[in-house]
Amino acid sequence: MILHVNGQEQAASPRPGQCLRTMLRELGWFGVKKGCDAGDCGACTVHLDGEPVHSCLLPAFRAEGRRVTTIEGLAGSCTPELGETAGLHPMQQAFLDAQGYQCGFCTPGMIMTASVLDQGQRSDLATALKGNLCRCTGYGAIAEAIAGVARVERLADGDGEPCGRSIPAPAGRGIVSGDAAFTFDLAVPDLLHLKVLRSPHAHARISRIDRAAALAVPGVVAIFTHEDVPAKSFSTGRHENPLDDAADTRILDPILRFIGQRVAAVVAISEEAAEAGCGALLVDYEIRDAVLDPDEAMRPGSPLVVHDSADQPGEDAPPRLSHPNLAAEVHGEVGDVTAGFAEADLIHEATYHSQRVQHAHLETHGALGWRDDDGRLVIRSSTQTPFLTRDALADLLELERDSVRVLCGRVGGGFGGKQEMLTEDLVALAVLATGRPVKWELTRQEQFSATTTRHPMRVTVKMGARRDGTLTATALNVVSNTGAYGNHAGGVIHHGCNEVIGVYRCPNKRVDGYAVYTHTLPSGAFRGYGLSQTIFAVESAMDELARGLGLDPFEMRRRNVVRPGDPMVSNSLEPHDVEYGSYGLDQCLDLVAAAMRELAPADIPSADWLVGTGMALAMIDTIPPRGHFAEARIALRADGTYALDVGTAEFGNGTTTVHAQIAASALGTIPDRISLCHGDTDRIGHDTGAYGSTGIVVAGQATLKAALALSQGLREAAAERGGGAPDQYRVHRDGVSSPSGDIGFSDLLSDGPIVRRGKADGSPRSVAFNVQGFRVAVHRSSGEVRILDSLHAADAGRVMNPMQCRGQIEGGVAQAIGAALYEAVRIDDEGRVVTQTFRNYHIPAFADVPRTKVFFADTYDRIGPLGAKSMSESPFNPVAPALANAIRDATGARLTATPFAPDRIYLSVMEAVEHRDSPV
């Protein structure tokens, strides 16, 4: 059949059942993204005869003879070979000017929908954009783009210091035009496809796999079972020190520990053939007892989850583990907690529950692999940790490290979920076995049922205070469900029990934390890394103490928070490398308190709505402990531009923008003259990875050191030619100036290239602070919650890019609102994930998210690069308790479990009313 795509005729032969999305991508239109293949997310939106449609739902044959427009052709006719047209459509330009994106994966579909909205539809974006989801932005920048609000600052020479300005992202034009290449946005000849058969049982042993029928499926090339792969154990979790995580996982394991675990892999010439091959495998299982609840798992006699002697606990799991189902535990006490509670005039004790939450990044996990011309293994992956993944593959497959290359395209969101090696191992194995390129892209169903989630936790908190509000004692008992495997089990339980109480001055503290194995979907790294769950409990308890003592909640915090000079103590007095590089918590508290006082009277529809306000705070170490390293390399080009190589990956965290700003600041130029390459193990020596909000504070430090070294090198080279001392020279856009005149860059390069490198080791570490405030209305009969006002203050040190940092905060708050109000990965009584689509796992849509007003503390961090601190994951952390405290203020009901669903709110309100009205 003939398709008319972007003004060009293209011949195509759709396969039976093929959708338009996959056919367009096969024709080279990679701006059409896959986010769900169910019509839920809108990432695949194209125009069909001028009308937006979800191309994943449209049978390809229905496009015959009709006009199809993708993001690449929105501004005019083009071909896949030539890419975008010379200009941009007005809506593309609007998204560019407002920077209406972060990772950019949803952006093509969002623009395709927005470009055809009429004025009436633009006045009701909640309805108009209901078919398009964004996980990163919180929708504020998208609304501004559609309204034509320009936010970016475009610097010209002489416009001053680049840092502290809202510089546009270097990849912006590629994102809005559809040319930015994500993981699978390239054509690979002779490509094979990998699919996996997954366990239908929560706990079983594979007794037999018959592959004969599967091998007979036309197109099947290879099949892998546990008998065909290395038996070496590893962890999917990626950390600088591999021993931080339990080595309890195998590529394919004969013992299955959760529904959805890999059983076998089939490689074939098409996805359809690979799926058919999986369906033809005959597997006999020896079904075993399963334990799904962490409390049951810790009882004597519970079925073991990790039992093989080859499975080693991580270094965060002390040798005195009290039960074989414990992946890690943490215990500590400072002072005398019993005596501290005896001194208290008021004690609050309660148990708080936080549920599983999915990262829901729109680009699912996946990898492409091939051998290059030198026979090296190359893996292109959607990962936050290319170097650690490279090292793990080399170790697992017994390859020389230099014979493996891992690189990233642009990564479509992560939120900690891609600090795992979940697909690269099987892809690498298949490439080595077949000698051909191999692709494995997870479906949305697999993303929900077979990757990782936030750790569900039960936190029992007990806090005591004197009448003046001074804390006397704090005790935490935390049970974290790590699921079937211990990736991140130790790190999350330790981190979750650290800053949450370290932020408060209290002489007596005790922590008991347990990370427990169960036969359920593994947990993993998630935005906040354990703090969002424990902060929900502690900040709710602080609110109850304030209420019981008749204190303003802000004042209660002011009387107890740490200040510069105070030791930061959680559950141990052992020395650490965390310092007050700067301190803005007092400003954050004051900013939100003042903004809440200045709110206009609430506009509520009827007396059935109860109005209340609430707040919460959070502290986070700016860098993870136990080592985080980065390198950068920068070189001068003859035309006066610079080539900057960094190892950290870009996945919507904005690091490429800020790195260009940092380098430009050090070199006296503008960011447009910095060309940056990221996330490629061939470009630099090492980078621990883009997690723990380290893309600026560690990798940016390496960039600053490299750029400063290059600036010094250029001055030294100029001094050799012009005489005098290097400090008499100044680097600027076109060369190096001195009192005796300018020396051009081409002259400086006449003796060879000038290249410098920089390294950062992630120590010492600073602290960042966040304060969230809400005003809500709660319907007394239905339990519905409406957020009337959302206010957030952040201590990010020197804010390197205000527009971008504000977007990170807005997105973090929006994601946390989803986790607080409705998101939940639900597992049935057999251990099966039942929320496997965006249709039954509700992430915030445009209509769900309030506009958050963001404030920045005025601080300058002496540890971070040019005064900056981290601000990617921490805005998430205080949101749930701030919402709970606002609902408590409105209704009198204390919610102790997320999500705050209407039925749960209604029942809590009724319980609070009964308790209030009952006779004493």
Describe the structure.
There is one protein chain. The chain is an alpha+beta fold and 920 residues long. The protein contains 26 helices and 31 strands. The strands form seven sheets. It has a seven-stranded mixed beta sheet with strand order 8-10-6-17-14-15-16, sandwiched between helices. It has a five-stranded mixed beta sheet with strand order 2-1-5-3-4, with helices on one face. Strand 15, helix 12 and strand 16 form a beta-alpha-beta unit. Helix 2 packs across helix 6 and helix 20 runs parallel beside helix 22. The longest helix is centred in the C-terminal third of the chain and has 24 residues. The protein is globular and about 75 Å long. The N and C termini lie far apart (80 Å). The mean pLDDT is 95.
